[in-house]
Amino acid sequence: MTVLYVLAGLILGSIPVNSSYAQTTEGIEIFVTDNGVHTDLVLPVKTDIIDWRDKLYLRDYAGADSSFTHVGFGWGDRQFYMETPEWKDLTLTTAITSLFWPTRTAMHVEYIAQPLRQNKYQQPVIITEAQYRALVQYILDTFQQQPNGEFLLIEGKGYHTRDNFYEANGKFHLFKTCNSWVNGGLKAMGHRAALWAPFSFMVMRQVRE
């Protein structure tokens, strides 16, 4: 089962969609980041399209202020996020549950003090306003929202004073992972992406090409 899963990931992760995509030289810069296992989307705090502080209230982030320039978004298994602030905290039960049963999900949001720099783990992507609107909508649709449009903050679960968790839509399972969510964001805005990307390096491969 494990071998088949890895093989399927390697094969489908190598098949691009939107393969004719050509990156613009001017527009809005976002980043795709990778910690070796998990990928995130990093967006400017404010553009003409959206000011994320109108949704992600700074009062809920004791360590962030109005000078912070970017905000990172990650989607994943709610229990895994809550119980595994570091890899050393991972338990076998949490790992098995998150992979083999459809589980509740959460959005992890982190305010970032200054623009990122390109390196092996941080890849910039320049997109048009239309693409950015599509990506913003994709992210907004992932958050569970109250009737007034407010996100559902999970109180007291952040890892530090600059991040928080929010209730999310969708179920996490073996075939829909944190990386396939980021890959889905690339697809949603028409960027080059993998057909399916369960692993982080497959997401990064597509944004580098």
List strands and helices in order, with pairings.
Blueprint: H1 2-13, E1 16-17, E2 28-34, E3 39-44, E4 70-77, H2 78-83, H3 92-100, E5 105-112, E6 122-127, H4 129-142, E7 153-154, E8 163-167, H5 178-188, E9 193-194, H6 200-208
Notes on the protein architecture:
Strands 6-2-3-4-5-8-7 form a seven-stranded antiparallel β-sheet. Strands 1-9 form a two-stranded antiparallel ribbon. A hairpin with a 4-residue loop joins β2 (28-34) and β3. The relative contact order is 0.24. 29% of the residues lie in helices and 22% in strands. The protein has 209 residues and is an alpha+beta fold. The protein has one domain. It has helices spanning 2-13, 78-83, 92-100, 129-142, 178-188, 200-208; strands spanning 16-17, 28-34, 39-44, 70-77, 105-112, 122-127, 153-154, 163-167, 193-194. The model has no long low-confidence stretch (mean pLDDT 89). The longest helix is centred in the middle third of the chain and has 14 residues, at 129-142.
